[in-house]
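Here is a protein:
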Amino acid sequence: MTSMDAIGTLAAMTAVAKRTALVLGASGGIGGAVARALRDAGWTVRALKRGLAGESEQRDGLLWLRGDALEAMDVQRAAQGCEVIVHAVNPPGYRRWNELVLPMLDNTLAAARARGATVVLPGTVYNYGPDAFPHPGEDAPQRPLTRKGAIRVEMERRLQQGAERGEFRAIVLRAGDFFGPGAANSWFSQGLVTPGRAVTRIQQPGRDGAGHQWAYLPDVAAAMSALIERREQLPAFARFHFAGHWDADGRQMAEAIQRVVRRRTGVTPKVSRFPWWAVALARPVVPLFRELAEMRYLWREPLRMDGARLARELGREGGEPHTPLEIAVERTLESLGCLPTDKSERRRTTSPSFS
């Protein structure tokens, strides 16, 4: 079956079911989590993927279509018959952000405009500058000091303009730093611990006393899925904040990791400072380190988004989804390969060694 045949079949099904969504970025953390949440809620979910061997592939309950979010026609074809487009895609390898992010969004908006679809954007705290700290509301002024923040503001501006003109509906759900299964490019997996290795040391990026906001991916995805179900009852341009897990003193996440690792292995990891000095040294030649350095202010000053608006909106569904911190941390460490997987391995990990 070609991709056009597959899309044609799904479009016919959509005429009856009217529950088809396109997820751009389904190979990534938040995109994948939202795709699975919609699938489990009974939606037909399509996903666009670069380098797919065939035109299409059915896998994990999703229809994967070969295409690139940077190609307008690929997005248009994939969006045929879709009511919802989740824009959770980033440039390949997170490179050339300044050049590629907005053109990718424009392709999504064009596809949504052609179909009157709802666009769903996972938002961030980058939109806010220090003048909005420490408790910005959904409608607070956005005056970021960073390049990435300015791009995020422009993304939301384009969504708001199109929604207010009646071209499509838009939902933005802003959240803190992601962690959870599938969150490979995150502070948790690239800063605090090392994937694939036992946790013997935890690197703490923030300073003591500076609160930090975290968001567990499955909870965020469940909230997005619930908002998508309610899209017709929401304003044309709807913004929400996800409360997630608030680390009040900047140490609670590290301490939760310690407790989980100690319970599973008998060993308590040490906590050390994240080597910001190394980031500063490598910043001129390593693009990723430039991005990290630019966002350091979020580890020095507390910024806490209030999820009251979201909780009210999802009140009938039980409010904001919330997995207890230690359960969320344990599932994240398991997905990263940082915890023993069976009793024999656990015994080897906890048995003393002699030299």
Summary: Residues 97-115 form the longest helix (19 residues). The mean pLDDT is 89.
